[in-house]
Please model this.
Amino acid sequence: MDKIESAMKSIEEGKRIASECSYRPKYHFLPPAYWMNDPNAPMHYKGEYHIFYQHNPYGDQWGKIHWGHAKSPDLIHWEHLPIALAPSLEKGEEHCFSGNCIIHNGVPSIIYTSIGPNKLPATGAEQWLAISTDNMTTWKKFENNPILTLDVHKDLKIRDWRDPYLWKENGSYFMILGGHVHKKRGGIVLLYKSTNLKDWEFVNILCEGNRKTGKNWECPVFLRFENKYALIVSPHRKVIYALGSYKNFEFTPDKWNILDHGKTFYAPNIFVDNKDRIIMLGWIKGGGSGGWSGCMSLPRILNLSPDGEKLTFTPVSELQKLRENEFSVKNITIDEEGIDFSTSGCCLEIELVLERRNSKYFTIDLFKSSQDNQTDKINFDFYKKIITAGREKGYLTDLSDLHRLNIKIFIDHSVVEVYINKEFCFTFRTFPKSLDCKLSLICNDGKMDMQKLTIWTLKAIG
Model:
């Protein structure tokens, strides 16, 4: 039995335990079983969407990192495919870390970070190449790997060098990798150039951070919006991004912003689809009672705000395919007594349109059980401009309008994604004790006008 067959057999054996967990999401993408983390190489190829991801096919903890693979006609319904990359143990490789895929002369080509006992993540990472000649069903690693080592930087001592992101521009391939400079307290993104994906030159330091923006940067993403550029990095805490200018192979950030205010959202990746949409997918951390850990965020469309000062975030319209039963009410005043609405199950989409009036505090109870009074709350403090859910906290300063709020909430068992006015994202985990729940809205002081509330139940994706 080869490495891929062994991994697939292990996943099949783990499916039963994973499926029995009541906290396991039903319409977010995740593997059939076991661990996943970073999304890798999302792309639209020959009429289908593809996603790869960091995957341990042997357990629900991090380790033995492979590349999982799935494809979809619509970004919602996914078909699991054979493991794309497995560690080449015979070549001293223990993990296939994150990377990206690009089409070179018609051939899908992956570049990823290779890790092993003699090439540790901090000091010895290498970049490896793999290609597919059968429409991305199987992958073959380049016989002369590595294609790039730390030696390319000469006297510049880089640590935690990983997570390539690629694009093509003016006939050349460009690649960035994250990390930090030894003995410096700031993340770094480095830029490289090639004509054939095998021979690379170090071009420049694309961007360097400081202590405030994190001591190390992972999973860098670089993209262009008309006359603005954006850099996204994952600094071992909340993901951040900056808009700015790009000149002479150097990115100058204007202001760093939080991409998603939840700590459970991490390592996002982006791609441009056949509709010219810039689509982002991220890793949502954590598992449940066993057999699985981690899922993918819902696909989000990125755009520039009308003033060009920040990004906006919109769930893809394809999610509407999952809608089933609909409940809607209009023009209700919410006060301190609150108002309850019955819901069915834990797969929901909720849309709220609110006028705040003079209220300072507002609470949305997502799971208010009539049996045990168990509740999971989203608390808005407009006076301090913060939002909280359990131990998670976000800052409403990102919102340009705190009086008229259009709130979208996606609930998928233990996973919750919140979008406000397309300017604010907040992802968190919750663990409801009962599926017999109801939604409760409470204005803790003053009053709010609820212009519209719509609740849909959502179908599982299988």
Remarks:
- The CA atoms of residues 94 and 116 lie 5 Å apart.
